[in-house]
């Protein structure tokens, strides 16, 4: 009798390989951290910045964590800029740092962070791209503007906005452009982090783990659905360091070569992904959205792989986004026209680009808002800071803790105090650190009409022309913007009034409007009319009320009540 043997059990399936991690640029410094001040732009690599770093170190104070900090006075003296511009530099740096724990306002800026920030001021943005569907764009953009050609003798900036309207570069294009910039300048950037050692050759220079970590200001590792990985965890020469022991520094050449290899791999990955996309269905966040397709039933909203939400191509419609509808803490609103958009959520960053004839309400933005290439747009925002670039005939109702920054080719801009609220507004403001007791809406800073960070060429002398600033909205034209209450079936927040105090002139105008409305309603109630005449009057007023709401870009008239 032969022994029966069972076949051996199959080996357990091998675990799937870990996903490949690619390096990505941090978009915030490139999108919200560029300041068009010529004295901040150094195009000679490290020749000027290396000596400037040493001067800053001499004027710095050393903290208990062994970091060197500089205040606005030291920055102004070292860079030979005004105290106001030095304050702007530190405020902008604080807005784009990757850590909220770094309180630049109270302890000053870290010298290494500041040097990296100054280095990338040499970055030039991609030009806005034309839309593939020119007929669709012509349907929502006016063919001409009263200002087209106004600066033709001064600057070619109007060429960006005349004839064909321009749109945000795709996310892939932007990422490729930023990675290519870092690839080209990586050696200089790393050299600025290394403390010079007299008599040592370049091959002998080393980079500590703390200095290496400073590069997280510009790059990070991570993919969709995963947490970002710190550079020291991703780098093989620091990955297994004992947290209780100081890590041994690594040769600068090793750090440079490893990062350069990863940047090259990331660029190749983007190129392969683009090639695959050319042969397959397009991605929502990288394609042009036909304007005629954007309606209430087909709102074009997408999410990037790394935590930004996009609202694109809304036309003749309205759109509401709450915190639960958004991924990440950044929002970009692009190419929206003749619409009302409500983003009632706590955010870190928000960008509004290429919109016209729209009203856009931003909930609470704790880091920075940028509004660019917009026409006849009303922006209502509670934010830490806002930058307005290349806009026309726009009105900004602001609750901002820092002075609004106005740059580029702007015309007929108006600013006014914040004019709305929703039930969770104060809760959202507290989450992102906006103070209702500080509102600098009426104190804008206007810089140059030419932005040296764009890729256009400019005639000689234009760089000295100051941008047109914004005027204050006439208090008689100030009105409260009512946000329809979509939260009736949900737990309501505690905000019942505008948390920002109105200046006396605007408060008086608001009271007059309320009194006039009250008197008009009383007159209508007391008017002796037959029932048929009352119905006729009510119907006429309702029609005019709807027409007024349309004129105010408030398409949610069905959620509001008429004066009757």
Describe the model.
This protein is an alpha/beta fold. It is 31% helix and 17% strand. The protein has 15 helices and 22 strands. Strands 10, 11, 12, 13, 14, 15, 16, 17, 18, 19, 20, 21 and 22 form a 13-stranded mixed sheet that branches. A three-stranded antiparallel sheet has the order 2-3-4. A hairpin with a 5-residue loop joins β2 and β3 (68-70). The protein is globular, with a radius of gyration of 27 Å.
- The helicity comes to 25-40%
Total number of beta strands: 22
Major sheet details: 13 strands, mixed
Shape descriptor reads globular
Task: Give a brief rundown of this model.
The protein has 564 residues and is α/β, with parallel strands linked by helices. The chain has helices at 27-32, 49-58, 72-79, 83-96, 104-107, 111-119, 134-140, 157-161, 171-193, 209-213, 231-234, 252-278, 425-432, 504-526, 531-551; strands spanning 23-25, 61-62, 68-70, 109-110, 129-130, 166-167, 206-207, 219-221, 250-251, 300-303, 308-312, 318-322, 330-334, 340-353, 359-372, 378-383, 386-389, 395-400, 405-407, 414-417, 445-446, 471-472.
Topology summary:
Blueprint: E1 23-25, H1 27-32, H2 49-58, E2 61-62, E3 68-70, H3 72-79, H4 83-96, H5 104-107, E4 109-110, H6 111-119, E5 129-130, H7 134-140, H8 157-161, E6 166-167, H9 171-193, E7 206-207, H10 209-213, E8 219-221, H11 231-234, E9 250-251, H12 252-278, E10 300-303, E11 308-312, E12 318-322, E13 330-334, E14 340-353, E15 359-372, E16 378-383, E17 386-389, E18 395-400, E19 405-407, E20 414-417, H13 425-432, E21 445-446, E22 471-472, H14 504-526, H15 531-551
């Amino acid at each position: 009798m032969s022994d029966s043997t069972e076949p051996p059990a199959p080996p357990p399936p091998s675990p799937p390989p870990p996903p490949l991690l690619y390096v990505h640029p941090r978009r915030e410094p490139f999108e919200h951290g560029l300041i068009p001040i010529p004295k901040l732009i150094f195009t000679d690599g490290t020749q000027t910045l290396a000596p400037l770093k040493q001067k800053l170190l001499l004027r710095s104070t050393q903290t208990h964590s062994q970091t060197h900090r500089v205040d606005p006075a030291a920055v102004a003296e070292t860079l030979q800029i005004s105290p106001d511009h030095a304050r702007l530099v530190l405020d902008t740096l604080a807005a784009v740092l990757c850590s909220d724990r770094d309180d630049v306002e109270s302890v000053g800026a870290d010298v290494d962070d500041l040097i990296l920030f100054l280095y990338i001021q040499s970055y030039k943005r991609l030009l806005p791209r034309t839309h593939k569907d020119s007929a669709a764009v012509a349907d929502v953009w006016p063919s001409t503007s009263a200002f087209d050609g106004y600066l033709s003798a001064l600057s070619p900036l109007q060429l960006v906005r005349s004839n064909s309207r321009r749109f945000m570069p795709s996310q892939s294009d932007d990422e490729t452009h930023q990675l290519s910039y870092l690839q080209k300048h990586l050696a200089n950037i790393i050299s600025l982090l290394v403390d010079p050692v007299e008599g040592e050759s370049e091959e002998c220079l080393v980079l500590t783990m703390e200095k290496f970590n400073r590069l997280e200001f510009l790059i990070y590792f991570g993919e969709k659905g995963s947490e970002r990985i710190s550079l020291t965890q991703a780098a093989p020469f620091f990955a297994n360091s004992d947290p209780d022991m100081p890590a041994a520094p690594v040769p600068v050449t090793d750090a440079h070569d490893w990062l350069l290899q990863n940047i090259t791999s990331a660029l190749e990955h983007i190129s392969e992904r683009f090639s695959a996309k050319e042969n397959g269905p397009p991605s929502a966040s990288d394609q042009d959205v036909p304007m005629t397709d954007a309606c209430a039933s087909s709102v074009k909203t997408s999410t990037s792989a790394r935590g930004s939400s996009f609202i694109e191509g809304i036309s003749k419609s309205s759109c509401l986004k709450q915190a639960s509808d958004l991924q990440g803490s950044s929002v970009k609103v692009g190419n929206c026209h003749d619409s009302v958009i409500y983003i009632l959520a706590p955010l870190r960053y928000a960008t509004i680009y290429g919109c016209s004839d729209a009203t856009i309400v931003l909930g609470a933005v704790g880091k920075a808002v940028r509004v660019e290439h917009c026409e006849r747009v009303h922006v209502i925002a509670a934010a830490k800071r806002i930058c307005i670039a290349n806009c026309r005939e726009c009105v900004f109702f602001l609750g901002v803790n820092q002075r609004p920054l106005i740059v580029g080719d702007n015309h007929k801009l108006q600013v006014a105090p914040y004019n709305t609220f929703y039930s969770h507004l104060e809760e959202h403001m507290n989450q992102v650190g906006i103070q209702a007791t500080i509102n600098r809406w009426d104190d804008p800073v206007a810089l140059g009409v030419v932005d040296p960070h764009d890729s256009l060429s400019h005639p000689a002398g234009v760089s000295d022309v100051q941008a047109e600033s914004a005027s204050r909205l006439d208090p008689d034209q100030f009105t409260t913007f009512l946000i329809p209450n979509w939260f009736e079936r949900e737990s309501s927040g505690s905000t019942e009034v505008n948390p920002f105090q109105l200046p006396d002139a605007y408060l008086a105008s608001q009271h007059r409007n309320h009194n006039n409305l009250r008197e008009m309603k009383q007159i209508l109630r007391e008017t002796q009319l037959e029932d048929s005449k009352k119905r006729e009057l009510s119907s006429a007023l309702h029609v005019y009320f709807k027409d007024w709401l349309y004129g105010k870009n408030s398409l949610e008239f069905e959620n509001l009540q008429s004066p009757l």
